[in-house]
Amino acid sequence: MSISFTQVELTPKKGISRTLVFSIWAVLVCVIISLTLWLLENNREKTFTQIQGQAKQASAFFNRHISDTTRYADDYIKTVRKIFLQSQNLEDVRRYMHDIPPNTEILSHITIMDKQAVPILISSGLEETDLKPGAHALDRDYFRFQHKHFLEDTPYISKAKKGRSTGLVTVRLVRPIVTPDNKFLGILFAAIHEKQITQFLNITQIGENSTTTLLGTDKIIRFHKSKEGFSGIGQDLSKSKVWQALEQSPSGSFAQTSLVDGTEHYWHYNAIKNFGLITMLSVATQDIEKENILYRNSTIALATLSILILSILSFLVVREVNIAALNSEIGNHVRLEEQLRHEIMLSQKANETHTAFMSQMSHELRTPLNAILGFSQLLGSYDKNKLNETQQNYVRHIQQSGEYLLSLIEKVLDLSQIESGKLQIEMDNGDVAQCIEECLHMVESRRKEKNITIDSFHKSVQPLIAHMDATRVKQVLLNLLSNAVKYNRENGSISVIPKITTDGYIRISISDTGSGIKPSLQEKLFEPFERLGLENSHIEGAGIGLTISRHLIQEMGGRIGFESKVNKGSTFWIDLKQSI
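and the corresponding structure tokens:
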């Protein structure tokens, strides 16, 4: 005679109780979770502080870099201007620039323009650029500014732009040329290489999405560079928080959504005195979060592993307590070991027969369910005068629920066969158009309930013969058509379009006018039991139809995919190998 665990009282008379073990386990789990949360938050704050510190240092370095560059450019053109004003002879300027040329790593060239904004000299010191006839800068902001304010002798930093004569992208530092008796002769400027600014971003980039910006005190962007390239140049930043921050301090930081690309950034700014410039360096919030991902994942994994080990140890302790209690109660350790081996064997057998059990249960459930459906159909076809409207609604509800349950059982059975590798596919040449026609008839009643129009073009295409399992193809098409009806709007439409692709497939596309699928949910679409947030809606479904459909199509050597736009609808398609 064998003894099962249900026949033995497992409560020990002495020693540690299971309640105490569970209590200790619960306390330790709470400690692990609390410690994990504290570590994650502490690391997040530490990472934030560290990155912001790096960004602050980089911002200060960027400011010094731009400040030194502009001062060098300004000093050089002021010297050139002084020489020019002494004789108003370009040869003297050429001679000076040849003897002491500007640093070409910083400055692309020096340009002198007359009062009509026509270039009269474009030189890098060692090489002079040919002047283009008709070229002028009357429409350039820097010339208009200096022509209007030439008596103030204020340096002006232009927006980054490609030169008409040189074709180079530069930022220009511009000064007016004014005689001692206050006559405006023109302007001269130093063209600062854009790489002089962009190389800073490449060297000191704090995160993939960080940016560098040169902003004028007139609130116009002179230069803005991100990983995407140049953008926002000339944009008005009147709504930036930097102006409020500048009232408090000439340097600092603030958080704000970028007015250029719309992403959240932390900004570090520094004002450059005497040049009407503000340098800004930003770190994207998403880059800071990326720094936390590895630590967060490893910490959570370690915490999970700790809880798992603790649970296993607790289980082992409880099991040993139970064994000791059993020994003290029945005094027969051998019989207990036999029972444990028996339980282990049953557990292994249960695991081995899991798939077979699901399959058998599905078959067993279908038998009474088919009877229910049969009787409900008989009731539905009964003389309607003998059933009032409420009773007729009950009958329809029974039939609809039964059909849904039968469909669910079939899907669970298919999923079980797929997981066990026992799915049977019988490949043969078949008529795709006929499969479409049969499936359209199957969804006809559901289509009419929502007043949905179906346009199918399967009869207007040349004979569509594919190498496939026709039964499985109809199963997939029926699932896609049912979804198109189920998730469509009232009075919507569905289109079924077959065509032959250039790579030897027959593609069947099913489009609807439903609400579409959010991009953030599309990756989960083919996962089993995933309903994309519709679990509590009135729409029926278990979330395994598309999973099964994908397996079936792939088993037949085909392809399946979809496209979806929110509030516009979705298009699901399958590709079947064309029979030659």
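(Above: one complete record from the training split.) Residues 424-577 form a domain with the Heat Shock Protein 90 fold (CATH 3.30.565.10).
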